[in-house]
Amino acid sequence: MKSEVKIDGKRLQITRVFDAPRHLVFSFWSSAEKLQQWSGCKEATKCEIQMDFRVGGSFTQKMSIAGAGEYTFTGAYDEIVEPERIAYHAHFGPVVTRVAVDFFEVNEGTKVVVTHDGFPDESFTKNVSQGTLESLDKLESMLASQSLVSHT
Fold first, then answer.
1. Could you report the per-residue pLDDT of 36-62, keeping only the tens digit for each?
2. What single DSSP character describes residue 3?
3. How far apart are CA 61 and CA 13, in angstroms?
4. Buried b / exposed e across 95-132, counting CB within 10 Å, b at 16+?
5. Three-state DSSP state, 4
6. Residue 94 gets which letter from DSSP?
7. In the predicted model, is pLDDT for residue 146 greater than 70?
8. What class has domain 4-151?
9. Residues of the chain with pLDDT > 90: what percent?
10. How many Cβ atoms from other residues are within 10 Å of residue 20's Cβ?
11. How many Cβ atoms from other residues are within 10 Å of residue 30's Cβ?
């Protein structure tokens, strides 16, 4: 399934349903080892993530992007409710956004709703939207391969 994207002023909301159980989808957001396998735009050649996954803990994500160099952003976790919600604030240089990732059980799958609040302008919103959509495409492939492994 493709993602549903809503942009409203300084807010971006992306909804995607994955054909995988909620606990598995959540685990791909809560483990640095798993997150760095799928996070980042399709031009990202390498993604390194360091994270202290707990309320008050911080994270750093460094991506190498073909033709564009290295891009780093940081943040801190504000709320973690396993396997339902992860909320954090992210520092994209001088821009700080609030992000909430909500995980809902839907039949045999999981609906993920990613909400960013606080973007400075439409261009910034579109860049983050594109990178997030490309990351979710990679996550969908990772989850499909996990699903195949668990069914054999």
1. 999 988 888 889 999 999 999 999 999
2. P
3. 21
4. eebebbbebeeeeebbbbebbbebbeeeebbeebbebb
5. strand
6. T
7. yes
8. alpha beta
9. 71
10. 22
11. 16
